[in-house]
Amino acid sequence: MSEPVSPNGRRALDLVPKAEGKQTMKQFKSDQEVRWCPGCGDYAILAAFQSFLPTLGIRQENTVVVSGIGCSSRFPYYLNTYGMHSIHGRAPAIASGLATTRPDLSVWMITGDGDALSIGGNHLIHALRRNVNIKILLFNNRIYGLTKGQYSPTSELGKVTKSTPVGSADAPFNPVSLALGAEASFVARTLDSDRKHLTSVLSAAAEHQGSAFIEIYQNCPIFNDDAFEVLKNPETRDEAVVRVEHGEPITFGPDGAHCVVRRGFGLAVAKTAEVDPADIVVHDAHDPDPSYAFALSRLPGENLLHTPMGVLRDVPRPSYDEIVRGQLDAARTGKSLDDELDSLLYSGDTWAIV
Amino acid sequence: MAKQVRQLDRVVIRFAGDSGDGMQLTGDRFTAESAQLGNDLSTLPNFPAEIRAPAGTLPGVSSFQLHFADYDILTPGDAPNVLVAMNPAALKANLADVPRAADIIVNTDEFTKRNLTKVGYDANPLEDGTLDSYAVHEVPLTSLTVKALESFDISKKDAERSKNMFALGLLSWMYNRSVEGTEAFLRKKFANRPELVEANVTALKAGWNYGETTEDFAVRYEVKPAKLPAGTYRNITGNTALAYGLIAASVRAGLPLFLGAYPITPASDVLHELSKHKKFGVLTFQAEDEIAAVGAALGASYGGALGVTSTSGPGVALKGETIGLAVMQELPLVICDIQRAGPSTGMPTKTEQADLNMALYGRHGESPAAVIAASSPSDCFYAAIEAARIAVTYRVPVLLLSDGYLANGSEPWRLPKVAELPEITVDFATAHNHENPDGSTAFWPYLRDPETLARPWAIPGTPGLEHRIGGIEKADGTGNISYDPANHDTMVRLRQAKVDAIARDIPDLVADDPSGEARVLVLGWGSTYGPIGAAVRRLRDNGHHVAQAHLRHLNPLPANTEAMLRGYDKVVVPEMNLGQLSQLLRGRFLIDVIGYNKVRGLPFTAGELESALEEIVKNV
């Protein structure tokens, strides 16, 4: 997919030092024993990420992974990069401070549905709004795992859990819609078990200058098993998953039997055979107007039917860190800072006493 | 008419008016004129939190008190010798503080029936004898100003707004201060509106000339320059000094300064000031909330910057969890708490020093952090450098306590030479520090410097030192996750020992006891330094023996603290809280210190401390 560069022509990794020689997946594995539950979707994501990192071609020590709290947030311990396992919900703030001061780093953030959308919701939307150069991987399993099974802000209405024995009363967020509403410049969705797709989305995000938001549907076998089964089961997935590729007409299902068309202010699913081929929506991830991507994000009905997967939005927008660093560069005078400090202290109304 | 000139050694003036009357600006300008003249001075701005409370009401009164003298002074003065009251509300709100026989200058134009009723005056205090024991100068400031500006093509409203400059001109004449600096200031301030420059300058001069010509002001006063140590001086507020101190620390350490902040009274000026100094590489990040502000600062520290967050009490309450993370991760972090009256919203524009307990203990778990406090507006500069030095050297969060009084108050500051400022040494880890049994080497992020007990600061981008840190308990040395009971006990004690060890690296507490015969020690911390010092001076002038000591470091305390306290029969601890330092000293040393505690949102007056201390000194 052709990647739009930022308005000043910059790509996310331009300032990150390049690796000498070929890197291997092995060198990105830490010596720590991985301690997720057997069958957890996090294993697949970790493996995909470890094999993806060498493809970036940047120096190993210039990758940093920052996480919050939750099962997914243990991720940094298993990567032989720099990493910080921080506190609940605050990873976007910490990663923002790091990425803003260190353009030579590739900064990744690992979070979950509770971490990013509940306790850290404020930080997430503001990081996206600022467009700080961080890549956010939200592992969405639609449940609180580490605290053993309470409903999360992405659990479906009426979800019966330990804390909602007769069903939850609050409606869920659609994380992709939320990110788009927060002015995110890169928004994608993928699935833990689809390594190839997951890797392609990670690659696109890595190059994106500014914030990239990736929702990864991730299975929790203990507290919310098979939450995404409809998207994985060979018998249902073709009908359920709507793959989007920039520049390609959106069709899906067996032999492309279904397609996406415009309807009213939004989008709808139609039978390909029954519509004029010219009416089939051609996916445009670079559309400056986020309404299109938002409409796409609203396609799924009940039970995840018609869930778009892929890069929904990828547009150039100046990133916070490049703007503020530009301001600092413009202010520099070339004089020694000791001399500048001397001038600062002795500025304003001064008087001498002899 | 030749006017009489009388010599004074010190004067306290209070400008009081409506929030919209420009009293803070008037006070600032009079301060600058006095500084230029070489007086020592100290200021106390006092304003409501509301930007524009209803005009003419008591809650809308804003004041600025300035104490200037021909000798070194320590406080903004207990009571004004001169009150400038721009309206009835200003008179009513301030009269109780004004001693008999003092001068009161009132703007008679505002003493209308309606304005009097608004503040509950049944009769006009200018006429009913209320002010009989004062030297009242009735000046129609508004109408005189409007008249002086008749020929200007500006609105009546704009003309009336220049009345503060008329008042400033009059006071400048009375106290023999040059208005040249103010004229230059006005030309710069209103550069885009030349008509306002001329109007304000004209009003300023009209005020001066009014003093010169009218018979109501028969006497001019002179306060000679103070004999202060030789050097170059400027007037500085605590918040500006604190911001400069952070910049100086960044330059001295060779680390870029990152400030994460969320707007909050009275700390916002630190953010404003630092945002102006990008040429130093200072990056200011106005965060979405207090938690993000400290989080971003910690992220920047992790990346090798000098991470700082500035706030007031309510903000520190929100930052607690992140400060705890910094304790666990052992990263440098400076948290500036410009204290204000609490709890909750409290009184945002009023001062207090009741956040000491929060600074010391406001985190869960055994979570030691260093705590230091500034003692005067200019001392905020040095306190900021010291906070950064400790944070960077020991990889520990440091809470730097200032307060609203220091933040907005000002004093002359003898400027230091950059080369004389403390060095801050930064040593980032660059190499493996551990040898495995098989002879290979590794990087252990929690192996400590034997001297400081600091762990290595290995910043991302350093080859071969890739490692993971987090909030989960670390294994001693390797830094890997550990739930081992003995290891947790070890780590808790190590983190405490590291902070305790800072005591070896800070100066001993020094007592000021000129006669050497004092049996009573007055021990303070923070902004009470001035009032305590002034009270102690008065006691000594009256023949009493009393010692004074002041704490900069509150955690750890200087190594000789206990020994010093035990050297006196009585130890008195004045604090603008209910006894937080007293409690600490009693708990730590089993010494029954005597507290003097007031929480009124105002600094102590020297007079009240003098009385309280005299009782104790006499009865020891």
TrEMBL record, chain A:
InterPro entries: 2-oxoacid:Fd_oxidoreductase, THDP-binding, TPP_enzyme_TPP-bd. SUPFAM superfamilies: Thiamin diphosphate-binding fold (THDP-binding). Transmembrane segments: none annotated. GO terms for biological process: cellular respiration. GO terms for molecular function: magnesium ion binding; oxidoreductase activity, acting on the aldehyde or oxo group of donors, iron-sulfur protein as acceptor; thiamine pyrophosphate binding. Residues 69-216 form the Thiamine pyrophosphate enzyme TPP-binding domain. The keyword Iron does not apply. Keywords: Oxidoreductase. Signal peptide: none annotated. This is 2-oxoglutarate ferredoxin oxidoreductase subunit beta. It comes from Actinocatenispora comari.
From TrEMBL, chain B:
InterPro entries: 2-oxoacid/accept_OxRdtase_asu, Pyruvate:ferred/Flavod_OxRd, Pyrv/ketoisovalerate_OxRed_cat, Pyrv_Fd/Flavodoxin_OxRdtase_N, Pyrv_flavodox_OxRed_cen, THDP-binding, Transketo_C/PFOR_II. SUPFAM superfamilies: Pyruvate-ferredoxin oxidoreductase, PFOR, domain III, Thiamin diphosphate-binding fold (THDP-binding), TK C-terminal domain-like. GO terms for biological process: response to oxidative stress. Signal peptide: none annotated. Coiled coil: none annotated. NCBIfam families: OAFO_sf (TIGR03710). This is Oxidoreductase. It comes from Actinocatenispora comari.
